[in-house]
Amino acid sequence: MTHAPSVSENRPDAVPDTTPETAEPESGTDRIRRPSRNQLYKTLWRWHFYAGLLVTPLLILLAVTGGIYLFKPAYENWVYKDLRTVHAAQSAKPVPLAAQVDAVRKAKPEATIQSVTPPSDATHSTMVTLAADGGGPWAPTVSVYVNPYDAKVLGSVDNAKTFMQKVRDLHGHLLSGSVGDRLVELTASWAAILTCTGLYLWWRTRPRDGRTGRRGLRRWHATVGAAVSVFLLLLIATGLPWTGLWGQQLQKAITATKQGAPSAEDYKVSSKIPPTTADHLTSNPDTSVPWAAEKVQVPNSQPADGHEGHEGHAGHAGHMGGQGGSGAAPGSMSIEQAVAVAHRERVPGTFTVTLPQGPKGVYTISGKSEADPAKQRTLFLDQYSGKVLASYGWPQYGLLSKLVEEGIALHQGERFGLPNLLVALGTCLAVIGMAVSGVVMWWRRRPSGRGLGAPRRAQDARVTRGVALIMLVLGVAMPLAGISMLVILTLDRLVIRRIAPLRRFFG
């Protein structure tokens, strides 16, 4: 999610199609007599300038961290190659998954085993995820890797301390929880406004002359901004579903319009015990259910033969103390049987089996594919009978959910392989270049000792009202940006305009 064309143009008062670069600022009378389109140009330029000045530092941070995170799969496969890959003879047979999980339980007896990801092929290890105590969204987990042929524990990775997790935390919430999340959402929203206003400024000027100096920098800034604007808006739009406020509102809209996966009521399997929704099953983004299934209610297993009374086994089950080390309550099926159901139901690719949480918990099988969201599948299995209580996949997703899932794959640079990654990376690099060039242009032409050098206010009230209406529409679409606009306009009217030094400083 990110970024946009920048901080300012070359001069605060120049109207490029009619005024030469070296012209002096025109008088107030001249400004009033200019056509309204020039007044519109100045007004949007002023918004573009102040928006860029406000969010440029965070835009650069988001562009840098976003560009780095695109390489997470390749980076982690390289760094953890010794843990994730194994070498075995062609005739070697894997030991039961329950035995592999038992090996982890013996190595980490104090830990709660959360999920198991079977090997994707004969050269990969089994990953067992341990839940961490405490923490909020994306709380730290530990991944333990096991050789599937001899159940030997190869090592573990504390996911809270990995380089890519730090990058993710910076990109998602600036290492500051919900406050950081709101700042990221605000930055992304203003980045969209920067992009739209920048496109208008480019369309009005379309600079063709000058390849060096200030004109050359301005030409580069405007041309690159226009060239990547579509990709930039796409990155912003596909990143917003992860944010707190905007993402929550989108989830509510999808639920209200029945554009998500079918509700639990449709399957008559609503849950009355926590976790009530699938996003509470795990805190590890690598083993979580797809975004479209996060708010699906988790059904209950139906204990048989008097197992209803084994509530005391809930903690025991969480620590992999069930039959055969399956992590389920007594009388439940083994993890191998759960995997067999996944194969029978044709869950594609690499999938994760999240273990039941207590006697009424279910096996959750989550198959995610960033390269092709249509291959996603989430199953809830009764831990005793193996019955598929609910199945969610592409056919069940509504239109909005499908668009979000496609967007997530594009945002992470995986939907169309290497071309997708290169386009996303190029957009991030372009944002950094535009942000830096915008600051440089402003620094070169700032008036010494006379404030910020912002474009002057438009004098045409009709233009001002028209721009206010446009900004209102954008503010409704992006609530945090709308709230910040109201704050800015209120300060401008009640404080800045009434205090002469502030009025001169802000222009």
Automatic annotation (TrEMBL):
Coiled coil listed as a keyword: no
Start-end of Gly residues biased regions: 318-328
Comp. bias regions, Basic and acidic residues: 305-314
Taxonomic source organism: Streptomyces albospinus
Name the UniProt record assigns to this protein: PepSY domain-containing protein
Residue ranges of the TM segments: 47-71, 183-203, 223-242, 421-443, 463-489
Top-rank taxon, per record: Bacteria
Domain PepSY residue range list: 333-391
InterPro entries: PepSY, PepSY-ass_TM
Keyword flag Transmembrane helix: yes
Segments for region (Disordered): 1-34, 259-287, 299-331
Keywords: Membrane, Transmembrane, Transmembrane helix
Coiled coil (UniProt feature): none
Lineage: Bacteria, Bacillati, Actinomycetota, Actinomycetes, Kitasatosporales
